[in-house]
Fold each of these.
Amino acid sequence: MRIGIYPGSFDPVTLGHLDIIMRATRLVDLLVIGVLKNSSKKALFSAQERVELLERATKGISGVTVESYDGLLVEFARERGASVLVRGLRAVTDFEYELQLAQTNHKLNPFVDTVFLTTSVDYAYLSSSIVREIASYGGDISQFVPAAIIDTIYEKYQNR
Ligand code: ADP
């Protein structure tokens, strides 16, 4: 069984992420979405909330599980028996960092390879930070995030 890990902050999950998730499920038997707990970035949603949002967004897609992790990604991959790391590439600006990350991870664990899926043109511009920015001003985020999580994002800003 081929197991893949799709790691990220997912703060919150966007339609761009969901597109990568759906395409990645065709490449592996099980896709474990790994929500990074101890990101240096200050997150809007807690790791547990981000896991819940992803679970809601991926309900009905088979072959997907969602978990949070901290520490080294290659260690998490080893624990889950994963041989593939999935990352999305949006623009050339993503490339340098992603290349360094992939090469480092391969050095740390040669049994794991990173596979890059290029973003669909529809979502090339989309990022979690853009969604947060628009939502913080009460703007319309329905084109950017899964319908099942829209209200939760607005609620987060109302309760702050
Ligand atoms: P990170 O903080 O690790 O970059 P993100 O949650 O921002 O985590 O992104 C997780 C992964 O999803 C990364 O590989 C990123 O390049 C990819 N990604 C983010 N937004 C998009 C998008 N709109 N289309 C395709 N891939 C994306």
Amino acid sequence: MERTAIYPGSFDPVTNGHIDIIKRGLKLFDKIIVTILENPAKKSLFTVEERVKLLEKSITGNDNIEIASYGGLLVDYAVKRKAHAILRGMRAVSDFEFEFQMALMNRKLNREVQTVFLMTGLRWIFTSSSIIKEAVQFGGDIKSMVPAVVYAELKKKYQLN
Ligand code: PNS
């Protein structure tokens, strides 16, 4: 039986930390559906279409990775795609409370969908889309934290050369 996981997130934009989780997730699952969902607590910089494109360009040549987007509840999408699990990356302790809350809410909504956490690689522990967006708009060098295509698009968005 093929084991499928949904890897959900805002991906606004995708970072090398996300890519690391996807690659490591593929050691546990046969297929990963990277899914852009709405996080009502966040105002996005890139449109969903732009985020899909950035993910597609950042992750090429692997048939076991699919890029998708969904405008509803994560657990509903997991059922729709017959996924066995939700995959999330956990960085520092500061992530724990939100992740714990979300995993428990998702479990309350659907007990059949399990959440699996992978600890973020030490290299990416301080990498987040939000902090990258903040740093780049003030000229910070974040080149090593995102795929090249994302770096180029971030510079365009903030009209930096
Ligand atoms: O990258 P993020 O912003 O930490 O991802 C959070 C996300 C998008 C996975 C979460 O907000 C989400 O699942 N949104 C869809 C609506 C939903 O199902 N929420 C969880 C139950 S309240």
